[in-house]
């Protein structure tokens, strides 16, 4: 007996905290990439900005270059010129090229730190920041509207022959751009040995190349392309960076600098192989800009970032603004407030003197500059400089865990969890009194403060079917108790 398979409904494409991500060959298909590109094209055409063109970049994931070319063909069908990266490049190079070219938008094919089975589609605003909620709402509407329609495309080779495609290599221009705000020659001349872990990603070779030719010794691992990412998620946190931490613990290095799969996130470890968690990195960078660079512009942090930002803000007279999670909120807030820095818990940092978008390479170089300046001040090795940070900014014992959920039941869990927390705010957590009757309500979760200033945040992910539990506490014991309490609240739902 012959059966007729139902034609599946078009995928509902929703942009999360940073782009749309999905499993390759399941929802992340050439058809859906073309739908996303068509949404961008219609946004650009609707603003009458076709002549400004669109910048396209891609990472080292499976077939990223082919997905990028598919997106280019859709843009070209709308008579929008395309600047396409000549090879896989860090995501922030799209932001850099958008700003330099005054382009109408940027597109990056990347799933950032997601598992190797995924890929994704990010959009950059004309200012170089992640596209904000206003732009994304328009894009999502356009993508939903074209769900059943054939997507027009122009053959790439034909358009390239007609001069509508430019292949670009951003390295030399980016190096010149860096030199406006970083003394690369001073970093190259440093008496230091650095271990760099790019996690097989698009940032491989960039830090080594920027620091070559001087006294500093840079040993970089995992530079080859490996879409499997060595079997780990390309996120620069333990346990994914444990190999690098072990090498540092073995001695012979002064500092470890890490990047994620598309190099827009930074990570670090001290000379002992002790991981410097992302909230500490936020504090270190604020301290660096205020203490060593003398800057006094505002700081923007996400709701899941460190309370050290507020304490350092009071110390140096810095306005501190808090946003929902994601650079689609942080970037626009940086532009609005003229901020010197924006930081998120996941290790993404943007800088007003550079780009209002995450740049892991730039953040790592600033960390290197910070530790070398601290060395000149007598706070060396790196672990001693971190002790100094906590002496002036307070304790920060941080932990995050992810509770994975079956995709089919994720929407129901979100409704039960968030509804339950809204109706029944706990009076205490880990034996500590919750200091406000009502929790701080975020766009996708709840943040609870207890009487010693420690906090717990429970939020649902916008890019993956999981619930994230975060805490920053005054002691490691309270940190672990708070996380355990948060996990019980989630599993009860």
Task: Summarize the structure in words.
It is a single chain. The chain is an alpha/beta fold. It folds into three domains: 20-169, Alpha-D-Glucose-1,6-Bisphosphate, subunit A, domain 3 (Alpha-D-Glucose-1,6-Bisphosphate, Chain A, domain 3, 3-Layer(aba) Sandwich); 170-276, 3-Layer(aba) Sandwich (Alpha-D-Glucose-1,6-Bisphosphate, Chain A, domain 3); 397-492, 2-Layer Sandwich (TATA-Binding Protein). It is built from 16 helices and 22 strands. It has helices at 30-46, 64-77, 92-101, 133-145, 156-161, 171-179, 184-188, 206-210, 242-249, 278-292, 308-316, 327-337, 360-376, 382-393, 410-423, 476-492, and strands spanning 20-23, 54-58, 82-85, 105-109, 118-124, 165-168, 193-197, 217-220, 255-259, 266-269, 275-276, 299-302, 320-323, 341-343, 349-351, 397-404, 428-429, 432-433, 440-441, 445-449, 455-460, 466-473. Mean pLDDT is 93; it is low at 1-7.
The biggest beta sheet is recorded as: 6 strands, mixed
Number of helices: 16
Overall helicity: 25-40%
Q: What is the number of domains?
A: 3
Give the CATH class of the largest domain: Alpha Beta
Distance between the termini: 44 Å
Oligomer: single chain
- Radius of gyration, in angstroms, nearest whole number: 23 Å
| Biggest sheet, spatial arrangement of strands | 1-5-4-2-3-6
Instruction: Identify the CATH architecture of the largest domain.
Output: 3-Layer(aba) Sandwich
């Amino acid at each position: 007996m012959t059966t007729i398979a139902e034609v599946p409904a078009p995928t509902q494409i929703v942009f999360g905290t940073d782009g749309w991500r999905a499993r390759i060959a399941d929802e992340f298909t050439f058809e859906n990439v073309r739908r996303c590109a068509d949404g961008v094209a219609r946004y650009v055409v609707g603003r009458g900005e076709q002549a400004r063109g669109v910048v396209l970049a891609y990472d080292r994931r499976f077939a990223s270059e082919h997905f990028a070319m598919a997106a280019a063909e859709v843009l070209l069908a709308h008579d929008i010129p395309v600047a396409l990266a000549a090879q896989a490049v860090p995501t922030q190079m799209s932001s850099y090229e958008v700003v330099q070219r005054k382009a109408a938008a940027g597109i990056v094919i990347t799933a950032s730190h997601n598992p190797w089975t995924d890929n994704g589609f990010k959009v950059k605003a004309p200012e170089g920041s992640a596209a904000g909620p206003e732009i994304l709402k328009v894009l999502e509407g356009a993508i939903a509207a074209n769900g059943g329609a054939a997507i027009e495309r122009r053959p790439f080779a034909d358009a390239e022959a007609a001069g509508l495609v430019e292949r670009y290599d951003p390295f030399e221009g980016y190096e010149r751009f860096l030199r406006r705000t970083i003394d690369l020659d001073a970093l190259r001349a440093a008496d230091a040995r650095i271990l760099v872990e790019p996690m097989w990603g698009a940032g491989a070779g960039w830090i080594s190349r920027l620091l070559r030719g001087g006294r500093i010794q840079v040993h970089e691992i995992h530079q080859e392309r490996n879409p499997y990412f060595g079997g780990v998620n390309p996120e620069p946190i333990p346990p994914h960076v444990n190999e690098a931490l072990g090498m540092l613990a073995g001695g012979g290095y002064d500092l470890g600098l890490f990047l994620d799969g598309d190099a827009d996130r930074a990570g670090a470890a001290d000379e002992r192989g002790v991981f410097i968690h992302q909230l500490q990195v936020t504090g270190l960078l604020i301290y660096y800009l205020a203490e060593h660079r003398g800057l006094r512009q505002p700081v923007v942090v996400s709701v899941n970032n460190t309370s050290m930002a507020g304490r350092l803000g009071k110390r140096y007279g810095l306005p501190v603004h808090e946003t929902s999670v994601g650079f689609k909120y942080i970037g626009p807030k940086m532009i609005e407030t003229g901020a010197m820095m924006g930081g998120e818990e996941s290790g993404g940092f943007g800088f007003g003197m550079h780009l209002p978008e995450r740049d892991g390479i730039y953040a790592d170089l600033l960390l290197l500059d910070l530790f070398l300046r601290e060395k000149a001040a007598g706070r060396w090795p790196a672990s001693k400089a971190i002790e100094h940070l906590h002496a002036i900014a307070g304790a920060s014992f941080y932990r995050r865990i992810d509770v994975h959920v079956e995709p089919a039941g994720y929407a129901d869990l979100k409704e039960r969890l968030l509804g339950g927390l809204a109706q029944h705010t706990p009076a205490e957590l880990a034996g500590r009194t919750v200091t406000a009757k009502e929790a701080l309500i975020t766009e996708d979760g709840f943040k609870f403060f207890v009487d010693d200033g420690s906090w717990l945040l429970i939020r649902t992910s916008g890019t993956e079917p999981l619930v994230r539990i975060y805490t920053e506490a005054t002691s490691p014991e309270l940190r672990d108790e708070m996380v355990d309490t948060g996990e019980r609240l989630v599993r009860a739902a």
